[in-house]
Amino acid sequence: MTRPSPRIPVIPTILVTLAIAAMIGLGLWQLLDRLPKKEAFLAQLAANPAKPPMAFPRLPDETLLFRRASGLCLQPTAITLAGAGKSGFRAIAQCRTGAEGPGMIVQLGTTRDPMAKIAWAGGKVSGFISHAPDGRSLIGSLFDHTPQRLMLVADTPQAGLSPNGRPDIASVPNNHLAYAGQWFFFAAIAAIIYVLAIAKRRNLVSKASSR
User: Fold this and answer.
1) In the chain, how long is the greatest CA-to-CA distance?
2) Distance of CA 126 to the CA centre of its chain
3) Whole-angstrom Cα Rg for the chain
4) Are 164 and 109 in contact (CB under 8 A)?
């Protein structure tokens, strides 16, 4: 007499199928939605350095990154050093711009001296717009959606400092293609593992039935 084949478990199969479908959906979202939008955004940023100079913006706006701008620092309230990789440290000033404004952040130049004391009385600054250093952790940034503040990177370094680096579009990450590949890979691995688990289960049930 022919024994019936072991049945495929319905609920686990549904759950795994839904999980695989969700991972494929996330991969398609990264590939078909997030990637084209990021490429269009990067194209806009690449064109920003050639646009006419503007006044440093009062509010954060990522579409203005790499635009040339100028601003007036009435009085620096603090000057600190932040890591700058191979360049050593960036000298960053927090500026008062008047009672009507939120202030301005200026990158004055770079130094290799971690104990450098920067003396600057403020004044007019011209340069390009970049992101200010962000103290939020990666996990913290997932829950805190406050826009990252902008910073004016000065063209001319202050006395005793080295020049700032030039604007680099490569500093803006574009990982959406990699993210899409990761989701597709996870979906494939989940499918393979489940097929192997079902095959192993069928084999064990068949052996048990033959005894």
Assistant:
1) 96
2) 26
3) 27
4) yes
Please provide the DSSP assignment of 102-154 as one string: --EEEEEEEES-TT-------EEEEEEEEEPP----HHHHHH--PPPPEEEEE
What angle separates helix 176-209 from helix 35-47, to the nearest 10 degrees?
160
Nearest to 107 by CA among 153, 147, 166: 153
For residue 55, the one-letter residue type is: A
What is the value of pTM for the model shown? Answer: 0.74
Rounded average pLDDT over 166-195: 92
Phi-psi label, residue 200: left if phi above 0, alpha if psi -120 to 50, beta otherwise: alpha
Extract the tokens encoding 87: 């360049």
Query: What number of residues does the chain have?
Result: 211
Residue 128 token pair: 């390009």
pLDDT digits (tens, 9 = 90+) for 1-31: 455 556 778 898 999 999 999 999 999 999 9
What is the residue-averaged pLDDT of the chain? 87
C-alpha 6/C-alpha 202 separation (Å) is 6
H/E element, 95 = strand 89-96
> In this predicted model, what pLDDT tens digit does every residue of 42-77 receive, in sequence order?
999 999 999 999 999 988 899 999 999 999 999 999
Closest C-alpha among 113, 73, 74, 69 to residue 91: 113
From the list 149, 136, 53, the residue with the least C-alpha distance to 92 is 149
For residues 81-100, give the mean pLDDT. 85
